[in-house]
């Protein structure tokens, strides 16, 4: 069975979906079979980011309602080994935690990794996305409000029985980080979140614009290189952090 990871955060707008799409892509490039599950009912974005929005006919709610077989709601993403199960268009069709705990383990038998993109907020969508996860990546930008939300997410994940949690600092820009004076160093960021660090993704408008527009993503973009390092660590490899001064 594949590893099931929920990608979440304490607030919206931190780049969870970009992390999910980018990480899924580089894991597939490592010759892994990867299923992305969009858990953001009503505001789904992964189909757009992966240039599948014109192809989607069925989604995860159709599967749990019995309207279609799982295979009909799983779409190839143009990268060998990468697949997507979209979220419903309507927010009220969010899949219950009970059904997620039944469906996701079945799907994980056929993949090396299942990445679940969690919606913003800590309500029903969060509970659904986290229900079947074995571990969590908590995405945060280096600002106090976002990190306070990350600490709240840490507590909720722990209550849900997910003890394996790692922090991804996203949209990091060294000069802006130093200039802001909000934190003395990166250790203060980690302490504020209360979660062990696994990766730092630099501010990268090129990667963000490519995914937002459903356009091709270059492996040479700085964020994509960071996702490669993150993927290696997620699979147990020892990869040093990039020098902050270069981010």
Automatic annotation (TrEMBL):
GO CC, one annotated term: cytosol
UniProt KW keywords: ATP-binding, Nucleotide-binding
InterPro entries: CobQ/CobB/MinD/ParA_Nub-bd_dom, P-loop_NTPase, ParA/MinD_ATPase
BP GO annotations: negative regulation of cell division
Entry keyword ATP-binding: yes
Any Pfam family hit: CbiA
Occurrences of domain CobQ/CobB/MinD/ParA nucleotide binding (ranges): 6-217
UniProt superkingdom: Bacteria
Keyword presence, ATP-binding: yes
GO terms assigned for molecular function: ATP binding; ATP hydrolysis activity
Name of this chain's protein: Septum site-determining protein MinD
Species this protein is from: Faecalispora sporosphaeroides
Phylogenetic placement of the source organism: Bacteria, Bacillati, Bacillota, Clostridia, Eubacteriales
């Amino acid at each position: 069975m594949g590893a099931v990871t929920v990608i979440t955060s304490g607030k919206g707008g931190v780049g969870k979906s970009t992390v999910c799409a980018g990480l899924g892509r580089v894991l597939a490039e490592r010759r892994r079979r990867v299923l992305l599950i969009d858990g953001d009912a009503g505001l789904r974005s992964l189909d757009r980011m992966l240039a599948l929005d014109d192809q989607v006919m069925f989604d995860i709610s159709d599967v749990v309602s019995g309207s279609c077989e799982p295979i009909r709601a799983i779409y190839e993403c143009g990268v060998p080994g990468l697949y997507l199960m979209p979220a419903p268009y309507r927010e009220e069709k969010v899949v219950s935690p009970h059904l997620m705990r039944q469906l996701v383990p079945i799907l994980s038998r056929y993949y090396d990794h299942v990445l679940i993109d969690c919606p913003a907020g800590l309500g029903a969508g969060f509970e659904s996305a986290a229900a079947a996860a074995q571990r969590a990546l908590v995405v945060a930008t280096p600002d106090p409000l976002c990190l306070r939300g990350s600490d709240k997410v840490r507590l909720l994940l722990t209550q849900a029985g997910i003890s394996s949690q790692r922090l991804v600092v996203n949209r990091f820009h060294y000069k802006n980080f130093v200039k802001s004076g909000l934190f003395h160093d990166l250790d203060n960021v980690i302490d504020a979140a209360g979660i062990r660090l696994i990766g730092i993704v630099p501010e990268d408008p090129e990667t963000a614009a490519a995914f937002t527009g459903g356009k091709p993503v270059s492996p040479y973009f700085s964020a994509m290189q960071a996702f490669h390092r993150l993927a290696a660590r997620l699979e147990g490899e020892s990869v040093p952090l990039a020098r902050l001064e270069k981010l």
